[in-house]
Amino acid sequence: MASTTPGYTLDFDTFHNTINNVLTRTQTTRHTLDPSTEVPLPEVPVATQDDVDAAVRAGQAAFSAWRERPVDERAAHLERFADAIEANLADFAALLGREAGKPVQAANMELAFALGHLRATAKLRVPEVVVEESEERTASVRYVPLGVGVGIVPWNFPVLLGLGKLDAALLTGNTFIWKPSPFAPYSALKLGELGALVFPPGVLQVLSGDDGLGPQLTAHPGVAKVSFTGSSATGKKVMASCAATLKRVTLELGGNDAAIVCPDADLATVVPKLGALAFLHSGQICMDVKRLYVHASIYDAFLTQLVAFVKTLKMAGAGDPDAFTGPVQNSAQYARVRGLYADIAEQNWAVALGGLGGEGPHRQAKGYFLPPTIIDNPPDASRIVVEEPFGPIVPVLKWSDEADVVRRANDSMMGLGASVWSADVANAERLARRLEAGTVWVNSHFELAPHVPFGGHKWSGIGVDWGVEGMKGWCNPQAVWVRKL
Ligand code: NAD
C-alpha cells in the first residue's frame, strides 16, 4: 500500500531506520507477528552500535541550529508533521492495528489523540519567570534545552507515547531519537521517514532494534536525556544506566490503578464506564482500571451488571470493525497473562465471568486472545490484586469502611492513577485526594489531555510527561541575574 498525497507519499511495506534524514538498512533484520493472526509482518532493521553512534552524532550536530530557531518556527514544524501524518491517516490506522492488535476504532482513537497532542503541544510555551525585580537587579529563571534526547516506548500505545515525548522534546529545542518497542516498531519507523520530509537532518531520528538497543542508548555519553515509558522493572535498569553519565531521566512506569465505587454511585451510569475502562485494549493500558473496590451494599448488583455489560464488548482481531478490544499484543505477554488464568483454579478464585473454559476467540487456532475475565472478591494478597496483569482480567473487591478502602487502594508499590465514583462529588474528591497516585479522578479514569501533565508516584515513575511541566523535563532551568549597576 502507498499514500498518494503529494509531498508526503509513503510506502507502507518496507521499513528503514531514519538517521540524519537518510533511510538506512541494517545487515540483520527481524520481524514481529500480527497478534490477531500470527501472520509475520515485514522485516525491520536491527540497529547496531554504529547506527546508535551515527544517530547521536547527527543529533548533536543538529542541536546547535535547532535550539537557536525561534520556538514558533519549531512549533510550525510540529504542525507540518501533524499535517503529514494526517495525509496518511488511513494507512497508519491499518498499520497500527496490525502491529498492536488494535481494532479499527482503537487504532483510530490512538491516532486522533496523538495528532491532537502534536497540535496542542505546538501551542504550549514554557514561560521565563521573573523571580525578583528591584531597582538594583533582576533575577529570572528560563528553561534551556538539554541536547540529544532519547524516547524509549512500549508496545501498547506505540504512536501516542512516542509522539507525546517527541513533540515536547523538539518544541523545547532538543533533538530526538525515538526507540520503539521491538514488539511494535512499524508505525514509529514510518513516522521517522515522514519526519525526514519535515524536519532538518538529525532533528528527529528513529532506530529499531532488538533488546540490546535500549541499553546502548541509555549508556551513550552523547545522550543528554532519556524519557522512558515501560515497566517498573525496566525503568530501574534505565535509571541505573543513566546514572553513569548523569543523564536527565523521566520514567513513566507500570500501574495498578484502583477505582473505588461508593454506595451512592448510580450503577446504570458507572458500570458501563468502569467496564470499558477495565477492558480497554484488553487491559493493556497503564491506566486501565485494574482493581475495582465496590461498596458491600451495592456489590452484588454491581457485579451482575458489570458481567452483563462486559459480555456485550466484542473481542476480535484488528480487521473487525465492530470489535471493542483485540488480542494480547505478543506471545511473551500472552504466556505471562495466561499464567494468571491458570491461577484461577489453583488459587480457588471465584470467577464471575470468563476464564479459559468458555467460548470465545481464544478458541481460535491463531491469535493471542484471552477472554475478558472478572474475578469475584479474591483475597487482597492474591497475585491478581497485587500484580499489574496487563491483560483482560480484573478483580472486583468488596469494601465497607472508608478508611480501610483508602488504605487498601494505597497498599501498593504502584501509584499511577486512581479514581472515586460517587453521586456526592465533594465527598468523592475528599477521598480521591487521599489516594497515592500521580493522577486522581472523580467519576472518571484514564481521562488525559495534552496540556495536563501525567506521571506516577512510588514505583509508577519519576517526573511527568505532557503539558508545560512535561516540557520543563526536557530542559535545564537557568537562573539569570542582571545587576543594573
Ligand atoms: P518494557 O519495560 O518491557 O519495555 C519498554 C521499552 O523499554 C521497550 O522499548 C524495550 O525495548 C525497552 N527496554 C527493555 N529493556 C531495556 C533496557 N535494559 N534499557 C533500555 N530500554 C529497555 O515494557 P513493555 O512490556 O513494553 O510495556 C508494558 C509496561 O509499560 C507496563 O508495565 C505498563 O504499565 C507500562 N506503561 C506505562 C505507561 C505510563 O505512562 N506510565 C504507559 C504505557 C505502558
Automatic annotation (TrEMBL):
Pfam families assigned to the protein according to its UniProt record, in alphabetical order: Aldedh (PF00171)
From which lineage does this chain's organism come? Eukaryota, Fungi, Dikarya, Ascomycota, Pezizomycotina
Native organism is Lasiosphaeris hirsuta
Task: Return the similarity comment.
Answer: Belongs to the aldehyde dehydrogenase family.
Q: Which UniProt keywords apply?
A: Oxidoreductase
Q: Which chemical reaction does it catalyze?
A: an aldehyde + NAD(+) + H2O = a carboxylate + NADH + 2 H(+)
The UniProt GO MF terms for this protein read: aldehyde dehydrogenase (NAD+) activity
Name of the protein in question: aldehyde dehydrogenase (NAD(+))
* Superkingdom, taxonomy of origin: Eukaryota
EC number assigned by the record: 1.2.1.3
Residue limits of the Aldehyde dehydrogenase domain? 28-480
Would I find Oxidoreductase among this entry's keywords?
Answer: yes
Location of the active site = 252
- Gene3D superfamilies associated with the record: Aldehyde Dehydrogenase, Chain A, domain 1, Aldehyde Dehydrogenase, Chain A, domain 2
